[in-house]
């Protein structure tokens, strides 16, 4: 026969004290849930007052087609072919006026030291391949790497061909995910050179998990390595054959970060 257990008033008080003392302790990074529905998400994060809103769903006023190498090499694309969709988002499109045409998007403005917030969603089918270019064409990879035990230098959250993410924070396709990136531009001397100690640096959170912690970007071994280091640079969104969606993109410049 099962015995019933009653709770004494003293036990009730003791439990209440424990909840009060320990219930609000911070969750350690490796214990944080990464679901888009978790309390730790930065989905929908509001831009600070000093931020520039790059995309809020209303239009592409802050963007233009990107021109580099095989992507619009003549810089003659004037129309943005990406689509505005529901819920304040944009979606990558692959053709213009019925013809296949490759197109990246690039901000009209250039930025130095900044914090960037961006939200993206991978399609339910395919690899979900895309990327976010920050600084002088360092690429933060967007890819369907959900569940991969040991992500590599081409998986989601990697600095493409340069550094793998410290942890795999990628969510499954169909969920909105967040990128929060803090970038410090390289300091270029008067003679046009950059010293090792003055290389660009980046810290990245993917879905509110730290995946790159103040990483020095002194090794330019990706396929864009010939692109010069500059004090300011645009943000570029990559089209790589997948209808990836983006929303809530804003950037806040940090006037005093990394200054000498």
Give the DSSP E fraction (strand runs of 2 or more residues): 25-35%
Percent of residues in helices comes to under 10%
Number of strands: 15
Structural class, judged by helices and strands?
Answer: mainly beta
- Low-confidence stretches are 1-39, 256-260
Total of DSSP H or I helical runs spanning 4+ residues: 1
Q: C-alpha Rg, in Å?
A: 22 Å
Largest sheet: 8 strands, antiparallel
- Mean pLDDT across the residues is 83
Taken in chain order, the helices and strands follow as HEEEEEEEEEEEEEEE
The termini sit apart by 76 Å
* Global morphology: globular
Briefly, what is this?
This protein is mostly beta strands and 260 residues long. The protein contains 1 helix and 15 strands, in the order αβββββββββββββββ.
What does this structure look like?
- The protein contains one helix and 15 strands, in the order H-E-E-E-E-E-E-E-E-E-E-E-E-E-E-E.
- It is mostly beta strands and 260 residues long.
- The strands form three sheets. Strands 1, 3, 4, 8, 11, 12, 13 and 15 form an eight-stranded antiparallel β-sheet that branches. It has a five-stranded antiparallel β-sheet with strand order 2-7-14-9-10, with no helix packed on it.
- A hairpin with a 2-residue loop joins strand 12 and strand 13.
- The longest helix has 14 residues, at 9-22.
- It is globular.
């Amino acid at each position: 026969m099962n015995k019933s257990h009653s709770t004494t008033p003293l036990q009730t008080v003791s439990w209440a004290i424990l909840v009060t003392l320990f219930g609000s302790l911070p969750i350690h990074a490796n214990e944080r849930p990464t679901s888009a529905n978790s309390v730790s998400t930065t989905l929908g994060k509001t831009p600070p007052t000093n931020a520039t809103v790059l995309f809020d769903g209303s239009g592409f006023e802050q963007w233009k087609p990107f021109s580099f190498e095989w992507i619009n090499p003549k810089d003659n694309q004037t129309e943005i072919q990406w689509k505005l969709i529901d819920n304040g988002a944009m979606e990558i499109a692959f053709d213009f006026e019925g013809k296949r045409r490759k197109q990246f998007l690039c901000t009209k403005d250039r930025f130095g030291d900044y914090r960037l917030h961006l939200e993206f969603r991978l399609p339910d089918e395919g690899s979900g391949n895309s990327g976010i270019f920050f600084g002088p064409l360092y690429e933060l990879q967007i890819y369907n790497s959900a569940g991969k035990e040991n992500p590599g230098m081409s998986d989601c959250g990697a600095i493409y061909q340069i550094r793998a993410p410290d942890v795999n924070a990628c969510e499954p396709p169909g969920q909105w995910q967040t990128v929060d990136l803090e970038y410090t531009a390289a300091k270029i001397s008067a003679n046009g050179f950059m010293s090792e100690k003055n290389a660009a640096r980046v810290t990245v959170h993917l879905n509110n998990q730290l995946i790159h912690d103040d990483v020095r970007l002194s090794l330019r071994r990706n396929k864009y390595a010939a692109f010069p280091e500059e004090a300011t640079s645009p943000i570029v969104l990559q089209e790589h054959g997948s209808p990836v969606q983006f929303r809530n993109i804003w950037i806040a410049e940090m006037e005093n970060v990394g200054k000498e």
